[in-house]
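dumping the sequnces here before i forget
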Amino acid sequence: MNAKVSQLRIILDWGTTSFRALLVNGTGKVIDRIETEEGIQSVRGDFLGVLQRAITPWREKHGIVPIYAAGMIGSRNGWIEMPYVPAPADAGALAAQVKTMQLPDGGTITFIPGLTDPSAYPFPDVMRGEETQLVGFGLNEDMTVVLPGTHAKWARIAGGQIAAFQTLVTGEIFGTLSQHSFLSKVARKPETPDWEAFDKAVAMVRDDARPAGLLTRLFAVRTGWLSGALSPAEMTDYLSGIVVASEFREAKSLGWYVDGARIAVVGDDDLVEVYSRVAKAFGLILAPAPDDAAVRGCLAIAEAVESVRRSA
Amino acid sequence: MNAKVSQLRIILDWGTTSFRALLVNGTGKVIDRIETEEGIQSVRGDFLGVLQRAITPWREKHGIVPIYAAGMIGSRNGWIEMPYVPAPADAGALAAQVKTMQLPDGGTITFIPGLTDPSAYPFPDVMRGEETQLVGFGLNEDMTVVLPGTHAKWARIAGGQIAAFQTLVTGEIFGTLSQHSFLSKVARKPETPDWEAFDKAVAMVRDDARPAGLLTRLFAVRTGWLSGALSPAEMTDYLSGIVVASEFREAKSLGWYVDGARIAVVGDDDLVEVYSRVAKAFGLILAPAPDDAAVRGCLAIAEAVESVRRSA
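..and the predicted 3d for all of it:
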């Protein structure tokens, strides 16, 4: 076993509602994983205690392993508030702003900073965690990359850097409307996605010749039901199709892609399938993307950090 | 007292969450009113019982008085499902489609139909109740009229008729996001509207040179807070300003008004102030509008119905 393979690290994905730790080797292979519901909002500030209890079995077996964390654990409501590195930025720029904290057991935890786009209107835009996924996806080819989520990000990779990005709150709109709105009051959510209803909404938005927006389009969930064109079982996925397709139209109007462009969809959950489907419906070409971009990005930044420290 | 003044009618405003009855004379003066929380969703189908118990004091004092009802009580979840009259339509067209039901006490209740715009994309648009407000506002002058609400309506009056209309789900977006979203999670709602924060958001949306939409603009609530530009107390009204101003931009892009146009805002609650404020910020001229348009419209339709019946 060469040195790279045997180099273990722990990668933390510690979000608002869940705690996830991955034990990975130097090639990014996941050796073991721990998942609990001890999200940031439930641990009452005892970050150290929760972390140490969780990784005790690994410490007993492997000794002290350096820990890296990206995302919301480094936010205002997290363990420490990390700065935002201004775009354009690459792995080196992110590595230069990490903060490493000594732990009582002699180990360390290193927090990766977020990214800001100071050119955004009206306030600087922000991401936490997606910058690490973008590094893991790779910054070699100039391309637009979409990262779906509660607050989806559209990012532009150019010249080996994350050049610019913008947030679209698509997931939040879908989540709140599907759960709390009159619009979808009579909706019955199917157990598996109703892709036919979803595709119908995507085509409706794509083929709309008017310069309409979300406020007008959303009412089609209700008028479709009232007119008998949509059944209660179709409404949730029709809503989803409207919202995601509207995101693609809005992103296009803002210059994030042109007709027939090659883009990537990066993430690790069902939303990648949803967004890839819409991208294809809009005639875009999908670049391949790994489903472990977060792990790859964390390792790339860790290596940049450790390389600087070795040469210092 | 002439015959018109002494002609009493009961106007019902029976919505999803509340019951309201007005006793009005022939000039539209409100003589008495009853309000309870017995909305459509709480009466378990006993519409007749709830109505009769509520108006017993009036019947004892004034005898049998004809009852008129517009809006959601005539919807799929209400007492009876009334048809939608297709636009273009005027008071006469609405009066021609009313349904009158005999009540056990010898009185009558007359339901006013809704209105549909069959030209809407992708499904026919619908309104229930707003058509009566539009009649009460008056159809003499060609003009665009905005009716704020959970599902706001933009209507075009032309040639003495309601010519066309469109629904924008602005109130629903604001309501669900202000109560349930991460966006406004740290917001502290002030007791009185923070007009300064509201106006700041309206100007931000109005002055945005980009062809942005709601999905990108909404994130400014969060980035404004993160960047220190917005305090938690300002966030709710900033959100409100973004949503309503985005409605005005979307309505303009769809041709509902041109720069400097004369429009009216019709309704009977605080939203009229909110929308009038945005209209002025967008350089529009406000036509005067009565705050009892619903009562006036109901009476105009009632008179059309009764006039036809007298001459039959």
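Chain B has two domains: 3-137+295-311, 170-286.
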